[in-house]
Amino acid sequence: MKRIKLLWIAAALLVLCMCGRAQALDPAKLAEDLIGGVPFAEALTPLETENAQRLYRIDSKDMLQVVAYVGTGATVDEFSIWESSGSSAAKRIQESLQSRIDEQKEGYSDYMPEEVPKLDHAVLIQQGDWVILCVSEDAEIAKEIIRKGFAS
To answer: CA 59 to CA 105: how far, in whole Å?
Structure first.
C-alpha cells in the first residue's frame, strides 16, 4: 500500500514539474525553417552571439542562447530567436527587440521608406522563456512557421 502511495506521489510530482517546464523549441530548426519558408528580400547571414547581443542591446545575464540572422542593411529583413534566463528576462528582451523595431522605423522612414511597412508588421512573440523577432515581407508566413516551431 505504501508503495502505491509513493508511486502516486511520484507521478503527481512529475506532472507538476512538466507543467512548469518552459515551452520546448529548437532554435536551429526554427531558423532553418524561417530561412527556407519566409520571403526575405535578401540573403540573411548569421550573427555571432556577442554581435547579436550588441545589435539588440541584450544583457548576457538575460539570455541563455540566441540564433540571429540579418541582412546587409539595404533592407530591414532580419530575425532573432532568444532563449531568456527567465520570465523577467524575457520581458526585458522583448522590450529591447521592440526598441530595435522602433529605431529601425525612425532610421528607415527617410532612408528607405518602402521598408517601413515590414517594421509595422514585424512579428514579435514572447512565449515562455522564448522571444522571437522576425521582420520580413510576409508576417503571416513567419507567424505560422514560428507557431509550428513551438508545436514540434
So the answer is: 23
Question: Which distant-in-sequence residues (6+ apart) come within 8 Å of 39 by Cβ?
Answer: 136, 137, 138, 141
Residues 6+ apart with CB under 8 A from 85: 61, 62, 63, 64, 129
3 in a structural domain: no
Number of Cβ within 10 Å of residue 87's Cβ equals 11
Each residue's pLDDT tens digit, 21-46? 446 899 999 999 999 999 999 999 99
Q: What is the mean pLDDT of the chain?
A: 88
Band of pLDDT at residue 113, cut at 50, 70 and 90: very high
Number of domains in the chain: 1
129 lies in a domain?
yes
10 lies in a domain? no
User: Is 70 domain-assigned?
Assistant: yes
Q: What global pTM score does this model have?
A: 0.85
**Domain around 121:** 22-151
